[in-house]
Amino acid sequence: MREACFDYLSLGGVFSTGPVSLLSGLNPRPLSLVLHFFAVAVYGVGRLCLPFPSPSRVWIGARLISGASGIIFPIIKAEGVRQMFFPATVPAYYRAPPVKGDH
Questions:
Q1: Residue ranges of the Squalene epoxidase domain (predicted)?
Q2: Residue 44: phi, psi to the nearest 5?
């Protein structure tokens, strides 16, 4: 996963600006975090299985996806599925107050 993350960031463009904006706090959207997290995992599986997949590489890829799911799903559960994926449906009194400078 570490190598996949490094190589994903090395692709540049949206593959590096997205995660960097999440880490720097410029992008507070949790859905973006989930999408980039799984993009790194899928990228890692693709690197493992291409061009010639073997049963052992497919098994390692499945373990990589399983490990990534074991990390992100508890975070999604703790934050709330509705709050993460459908924030507009959450009543205003449950939402965080807007950040200063946000209009």
A1: 1-59
A2: -65, -40
